Amino acid sequence: MIIAPDARIVAQLGEGEAVLQAELNLSEIGQGLASLDTDGHYSRPDVFELRVDTRAKDGVEWLD
After folding, report:
1. Which residues face 11 on adjacent strands?
2. What are the residue ranges spanned by the domains of the chain?
3. Distances from the Cα of 42 to the Cαs of 38, 45, 51, 53, 64, in angstroms?
C-alpha cells in the first residue's frame, strides 16, 4: 500500500505478488509533516511537558 501524507490511499495491492507503482507529488510532504510529525511531536514544549519525580518511593528499586 502507498499512502499519501494526507492519509489518502494512492495505490493498493490486490491478491498475490505484484509490483506496486504510484505517481507521487513530493510537494505534499511538508504539509503532511506539519499536521502529523511522528518523529518530533512529543518534543513540543508548548504542548507537552515531562516531569519526573526522582524522590525515593516505597516499592521502587533502582538498578544499574
Report:
1. 2
2. 2-43
3. 8, 8, 13, 19, 27
- Helix, strand, coil shares of the chain, percent, nearest 5, are 20, 10, 70
**Quick one: which of 7, 1, 3 has its CA closest to 36?**
7
pTM here? Answer: 0.43
**Which residue matches cell numbers 495491492?**
13
What's phi and psi for 14, nearest 5 deg? -95, -140
The pLDDT profile of the chain, 64 residues, written as one tens digit per residue, is 888 877 888 888 888 888 888 888 888 887 777 766 666 655 666 777 778 888 888 887 888 8
Amino acid identity of residue 46, one-letter, is D
Q: Alpha-carbon distance 28 to 8, whole Å?
A: 12
